[in-house]
From TrEMBL:
The protein's name: Leucine rich repeat variant
Phylogenetic lineage: Bacteria, Thermotogati, Deinococcota, Deinococci, Deinococcales
Source organism superkingdom: Bacteria
Listed SUPFAM superfamilies: ARM repeat (SSF48371)
Any matching Pfam family: LRV
Amino acid sequence: MAGETEHSPGSTVLRPGSTASELSFLAVHGDAPVRAGVAAHPNTPAELLGQLAAEFPAEVLGNPAWPLLRLAQPNLLKAWPDAAVLALLRLPQAPEWFRYHAAKSDSLEVQVALARHPALSPAEIDQLARHSAWVVRARIAARTDVSAELLHTLAHDPDYGVRLALASRSDLPASSVAALRRDPSHFVRQVISKPSDPASAPCCSCCACGRAEISA
């Protein structure tokens, strides 16, 4: 009505002093703005943030309580579901401290998502390039911010799925190209010989299709 001030659904129920109990109740509110407000509220318990992160990753990541939460519960992310960690990892602003904890996850899906993150430091890239899972190393091989030295190392990776990911690139240094042209895998040699031919490139980001190759 005229003269009335409009409020968002969240503003009518959320208060700066809302308690953890109240926030737990509001976390299942039917209105998304209310749930988003809970995700951003500094009094929201860490466990509840983990439940809300998949739906409201930006609000959870921007929650002002993180410095205190990290001090009080340094391993709190271990209790979060993978969906929550993945949602935050998809944010380009996911900070280094969060990526550090994500790197400790036992989930391969989380590790692959971490390898895709656009803000990885050289140290993080180097660490993931030595990951035990070939698909994580393949994601690193596909990055455009990998050093020439590391590209050379990946060109000699023991798993040809990693070398295949590398061969599909058109910006490799000459030393890496030369190594891949001598690759024991016929499929890798085929891809590196025709980098501009879509039919010769891997059909998926993880190079899984190439792993069906039976013999070199």
